[in-house]
Amino acid sequence: MLDIKTIRQHPEQVVAALEKRGVQFDLNQFAALDAQRKAADMRSQGLLAERKAASKKIGELVSSGLSVDEAKGQVDDILARLASELEVATRDAERVQAEIDALLGETPNLPDERVPLGTSEQDNVQVLTWGEPPELAFEPKDHVDLGEALAQMDLEAASQIAGARFSLLSGDLARLHRALIQFMLDRHTQAHGYTEVYVPYIVNEASLTGTGQLPKFAEDLFRLEGDQGFYLAPTAEVPVTNMARGRIYAAEELSDSGLRYVAHTPCFRSEAGSYGRDTRGLIRQHQFEKVELVQLVRPTQSDAALEALTGHAEAILQALELPYRKVILCGGDLGFSAALTYDLEVWLPGQSAYREISSCSNFRDFQARRLQARWRNPETGKPELVHTLNGSGLAVGRTLVAVMENGQQADGSIALPEALRPYLGGQGTISS
Known about the structure:
By secondary structure, the chain is α+β, with helices and mostly antiparallel strands. Helix content is about 40%, strand content about 20%. Strands 1-8-9-10-13-7-6-2 form an eight-stranded mixed beta sheet.
């Protein structure tokens, strides 16, 4: 959520920044609501002052010649009137505040000044490439054809069990999927200093609101039936980041590298806005797995933390010998809560294209303000908002796709990266 003080003090800059995203912020609506809220607050404060003064009038009225009962009766009448007016003023203030909260709840984060102009992924700016796409002496297959030829991927059976956009893996492909998860967790905990956490796969409305999935993106979530307000987690970002909700961290808890967490979870998304896109295979599923990286840092650390976190995700791609490129997202492609995002896109020979495999974002204090996630600044002695970051390290299904397509051989077998072989008993290839 945006800082309301920033909107009040720098309204034109806020409007201009949001225009970079293609978002029109209604400054007149905000100003009107803010004025109403201020008026309601002032009215409440005035009534409270009147009530305090009225409580002291009994003695004055008695001194003027009224009996105690008469004086008390007059004061009681005044207090009853003030109580009624105060109740109305309080309701008005709460109503206006709810409208302001709703407006800000639908307003995305301000983009970093480095975010390029643009309206779609076509306008994202390439930062670097790593590795060379393999030169295959045969027509490359996509992962679906490879998996089905191995008799270890059955999307038709998955469709019968659950429906479209689900998958069923077996044999060595299922083992490879599991090996990728273990490899990523080991690398991030042992080489990059992340603490592994196991978190709930079901989250509540407050958690989704805290990280920015609600209220804006309710249609992309799987809501459970019943009155509890439970949802299937769309990403481990939600439960892991919510570990900080309502917390005030001591300065020493946020060391030079901040707090680093890694979690493997299934993720569940309705993909409501992607009708007709990536309907074949594992690229866009209702249920998929991710190894997620989350960092909580001091505000002065977050720019460096984003570079480090993105580098940790890149290290996985490099260890798996997968060619990729790094792009910075333009304003029109930037996620709702993010101020700055790098996408890592892996090369897929079956599509002859780079496809996203990780998004690494700095949210600054946008999520922390919703979560009230703070740290005590030793220089001021006061609680201040932390900065939050997260990124996929990596999306497991898409990594499986990349390993299959980049490792494919002319006979349909799949050569495995050296780094994965210890997790598969030394096995170097997958074949039928």
